[in-house]
Amino acid sequence: MEAIVCSTTCRRHSKAPVGVVDRVRGAVLNGTLSRVSVLASEAAATDNEAPTRWSGVVEWTVPALERQRGWLLAAILRRGAGSILVLDCACDIRRGTVEGFAELADTTALVTGRPDDPGRPAAATAATRREGRHLRLESLFRSDGQWPTEDTRRPMDYLGALLVGGAADRVLLADILEARSGHHRDAASLSPWHDALDSLARRTRVLCAEVARDVHGDEAVIGERLAGGSHARTYLRLPNDHGNRTVRKEATGVGLGKLNDEIEWLRGLEPDAGRHFADVVAHRVEPGRASMDLKFHRLPTLRGLILSEEIDADEAALWTRRVLASLRRDVYPGGSRPTPTDYVRRTHLNRVETRLAETAAALPDRRTLWNSDTLLINGVRLRNPGALVTELARDGQALGMLTPNRLVRTHGDPHFDNVLIDRPGHRFVLIDPRGNAGYDPAYDLGKVWHSVNSLYDLIHGGHVEASAGRDGIDYAFTSPRLVAFYQRVRDRVHAWLTASGWHQDDPHWMLKVRLAEAAHMCSVMPFHIAHDQRESVALACYARGVELFNALHRDLVAARPRPIRARIRAEPRRAALVDRSSG
Hints:
Layout: E1 2-5, H1 21-29, E2 35-39, E3 58-61, H2 68-79, E4 84-87, H3 97-102, E5 108-112, E6 124-131, E7 134-141, E8 154-164, H4 167-180, H5 192-203, E9 206-213, E10 219-226, E11 233-238, E12 246-252, H6 256-267, H7 271-274, E13 280-286, E14 289-295, H8 302-307, H9 313-331, E15 337-338, H10 343-362, H11 367-371, E16 374-377, E17 380-383, H12 385-393, H13 396-402, E18 406-410, E19 419-422, E20 427-430, E21 436-439, H14 441-452, H15 456-460, E22 464-468, E23 472-477, H16 480-499, H17 509-521, H18 536-559, H19 564-570
Parallel strand pairs: 1-2, 1-4, 2-3, 5-9, 16-23
Antiparallel strand pairs: 4-8, 5-8, 6-7, 6-8, 7-9, 9-10, 10-11, 11-12, 12-14, 13-14, 15-18, 16-17, 18-21, 19-20, 22-23
Helix pairs in contact: 2-4, 4-5, 9-16, 10-12, 10-17, 14-17, 17-18
């Protein structure tokens, strides 16, 4: 990576040039920076700092005229190769900026939403907008200007660092600089460089890395916001000095216990089990807060490969079988223990009741959908899961069929978005384990089933339309091709499970899987409430859960052992045997 330092003085220290060499020393010595181009202020070219230091690596230029700075910057951009880090001033070479940006490939600006330093005003104000996992830069304003009251974008401080990734953005930025250099500007306008960056952000995609405080109060640079954990904040953390990017998970309050369980669970894995998971690089547990850094893998998820149609159903089923076989062989043998008598109530039924109550509280206008005894799903009258859960909790015979003999250590959440696939390396990496020390393997299978049978992946990915009336929900998947794809994967995995003896002679093993699947689908609604009047994802998840619970209840009744008298009445009578032999 190359770096360009646009100036060695700025309004923060107009009479005291800041040195460059000492600030980039570590990055040059460790090979992160191959070249540093400094457009120095005249006063900066001192014997202590300038051309005699690291000749061939640090290149010094003192523009004769200020308007030449833009032309020189454009020329360096055109000459460069690979990614180039452009710094407003030598004072913007923050600790970890070079190392952190060296890990990135896309054009990215450094911003912060917190006051960086009251005595060190921001270079400019960045107008940003959240775009999925990323924060995007849309434009720049003078930091002393007034923010438009009608603007819905989030204002943040631009911290004077921009990584220009790729030849296309380098050429575009150089063209903008050359077109605007030398133009007259008034005192109220942006500087020529910031004006060029503003134009770049309006014409192409510029992402943002955000300087923030982590849960412990330490500075962290956030590259992307990630999904991962219902109550944990998860993000891609750029290195602040040395090392590589990590996935940071941190929590306080509600999510603290869950994250502590995950940390303990991952650190307790034996080597054979641990090789299937991302390595724990560091962890920190304090009263009321905890964090964990995991090795970052730039790999697609199994869900992503399926939805992008990069793999066929046979390959998707193959990866699913490999994951399940590895869990059974390497993870499940740990932590075997007796099953408590209230396992089904505690693990499945109570969770459904709690999440139904949370959903009803969050969406009071649709309370009848969650609280009524029956509702219509695609025109079919079905019983509400709340009523079925209450009935099931009192049915000792059904609970007996659904209770496993023993519990084992499980992943707890192996749905397809928690499986990273390394196709060239012929391996997978499991992420975001729930950290269950004692669950039924059917719980894990239920998570797989809610991907391949409930089609949660399609619901979550927006491939569904759903609407609710006063008495029910109508929903439909918008991609019959993907529905058929997932059904093929389901059928192939089910055939393998049966042939491989996964059930271990348990006649009710699939009922256990289906209970877990139904409970999962009826428990995710609070995490998908968008408050957008439509609530397509939450409604579709619930509708699928209603169907699953009703089908499960029907099959539980059919699988129930019948009393002896009932069996005798149901069997055809046979003629009595009469001894017709003569005496």
